[in-house]
Amino acid sequence: MPKTTLASIDPTEEFPFAVDDYLLHLVVAIYQFRDSRIDGALRALGLNVSRYRVLGVLERFGASTMTELSNFTAMQRTTLTRIADQLVAAGWVERHAEARDRRHVVLDLTDKGRETHAKALGLVLNLNHRLMDSVPEHERRSAARVLMQVVDNLAPNRLARDGIIHFSREGLGRDSAPT
């Protein structure tokens, strides 16, 4: 029986392999390189990318459930539980039971968490600006629209999709913070 070889080939030879595969290859590389840089910049604050992302969601939306954090960060809930433990231990976040259902945990920023996030945000925005500065805005917007479609195709459910694409509580069907 002849051996079948699967290959990803760009018929125009512009890219090393088919454009769909190459685009996703680049997304993964950008994710790895950027997160490594951000981790290095945040280390002095006692943060890493994952902790920073959770602080960012809490700063933007206020008290949030673990499900909301999962939808906004695209992180698994088990990973978020570990991160929440670290943030609570550092004094950046407080953990409460939700008033409507005490089985649900709500996380909220402390003043110390807000201060730390503000410092971290400055570092991340500066890095993002340096990374994207040479790319014209119309190309950045076009790339964002393409990636939104990929998220739409890939997200495991509507809430996960809307949490990432719309990054709003309204996108999740909630217009107020947990009580």
Give a short summary of the structure.
The chain is mostly helical and 179 residues long.
Radius of gyration: 19 Å
Oligomer, anyone? single chain
Q: Can you list the strand order of the major beta sheet?
A: 1-3-2
> Distance between the terminal alpha carbons, to the nearest Å?
65 Å
Strand portion: 5-15%
Number of helices: 7
Structural class of the secondary elements? Answer: mainly alpha
Per CATH, what is the topology of the largest domain?
Arc Repressor Mutant, subunit A
- What count of structural domains? 2
Order of helices and strands: HHEHHEEHHH
Average pLDDT level: 91
Under CATH at level 1, the class of the largest domain stands as: Mainly Alpha
Main β sheet profile = 3 strands, antiparallel
Helix content: 55-70%
Shape: globular
Low-confidence runs: 175-179
**What is the number of E strands?**
3
Judging by the overall fold, what is the CATH architecture of the largest domain?
A: Orthogonal Bundle
User: What is the CATH homologous superfamily assignment of the largest domain?
Assistant: Winged helix-like DNA-binding domain superfamily/Winged helix DNA-binding domain
